[in-house]
Amino acid sequence: MQLYILRHAIAVPRGTPGYPNDDRPLTEEGIAKMTEGAKGIKEAAGSFDLIITSPLIRALDTAKITAEVTGYENQIIITEHLLPGSPQRTLFKFIADYKHLEKILLVGHEPHLGFLASKLVGIDESVIDLKKGGICRIDIDDMPPGKNGKLIWLLQPKHLRLISKQNNSGGND
Questions:
Q1: Is residue 108 part of a domain?
Q2: Residue 124 DSSP SS3
Q3: Strands 135-139 and 103-108, how do they pair?
Q4: Which of 7, 38, 64, 109 is the most exposed place for a label (fewest CB within 10 A)?
Q5: What is the pLDDT of residues 117-139, one digit of tens each?
Q6: Phi, psi angle pair for 31, to nearest 5°
Q7: Residue 163 belongs to some domain of the structure
């Protein structure tokens, strides 16, 4: 199974008047950068068999942008198991229902995703840092994981946008 772990795009800053912390939408800059970044995701990963997201609006909107750009046509699954602080074991049990699928995209928040990605490769502390709009691919044999997965790649937002630009320019430089 290929697990893709994507941090939500740039959102309205925490503490901004009029926006509760759990309901902060993406900014216009976040939407624009994520749309370009999603084109890079499409080049690097193609589409997905399943997209699962946190219910918080900034993650859900990131998932929707990525789904549209990558040509994903199935339902986006929303789960509280991707909320910050949710136990990894419950997320693993949730994903196990979909272990017959090859490519699953998880959309959520830091530091939760960094700990999740690190745990999947066998490290008990967070050593994988995802910037807003960054993504990594980890291949695992089973869910819940019985042995360590393999980090295949980690692409931060600027890398995704470069991939997108190179593809749009023909890449013949």
A1: yes
A2: coil
A3: unpaired
A4: 64
A5: 999 999 999 999 999 999 999 99
A6: -65, -45
A7: yes
Q: Please state the domain count of the chain.
A: 1
Q: Where are the beta strands (DSSP E) in the chain?
A: 2-7, 50-53, 77-78, 103-108, 135-139, 150-155
Looking at every residue in the chain, the average pLDDT score rounds to 93
Higher confidence at residue 142 or residue 71? 71
Torsional class of 172: left (φ above 0), alpha (ψ -120 to 50), beta (otherwise): alpha
Q: What DSSP string runs through 4-28?
A: EEEE---BSPTT-TT--GGGPPBPH
The rounded distance, in Å, linking the Cα atoms of 38 and 24 is 20
Instruction: State the residue range of the domain holding 69.
Output: 2-168
Q: How far is CA 108 from CA 71, 163, 169, in A?
A: 20, 22, 31
Read off the amino acid at residue 68.
E
pLDDT in tens, 45-91: 999 999 999 999 999 999 999 999 999 999 999 999 999 999 999 99
For CA atoms 152, 172, 36, 45, the dihedral sign is negative
Give the model's pLDDT for residue 22: 78
- Tokens found for residue 89: 């074991």
Residue 173 included in any domain? no
